[in-house]
Automatic annotation (TrEMBL):
Protein name: DUF2267 domain-containing protein
InterPro entries, per the entry: DUF2267 (IPR018727), DUF2267_sf (IPR038282)
Gene source species: Streptosporangium minutum
Pfam family of the protein (one): DUF2267
Amino acid sequence: MECKEFFQTVAERAGQSREEAADLTRATLGALGERLSAGEARRLALQLPEPLRESLPVRDKSEQFGLHGFVVRVSNRTGLTMQEATGGVRAVLTTLRETIPDEVFDHVMSQLPDDFQEMVEPTT
């Protein structure tokens, strides 16, 4: 999936403009990069469209924070309310699940607390 299509899908899911969806995507990837191990962040980055790879930081040491802290980071980076940021994170994670190989997505989710699973919309 190309960046524009990814942003459009996130925009539709989150009820945001494509520009806001681009910001949401970058903020969500930024928080993911802070939370994931370096190896997992690299593996995920390889599955992303080239322009999005730079939004996913690779850190030597991952930070430990839960879903609430994750959404706070996205909200702070985008200026969205917590409710809007929660919907945005849900939209980005769901779009990632549909875009990247299942194995890679499952590895990413395995490094996150269980409540992140609730953020991914069921497949139809």
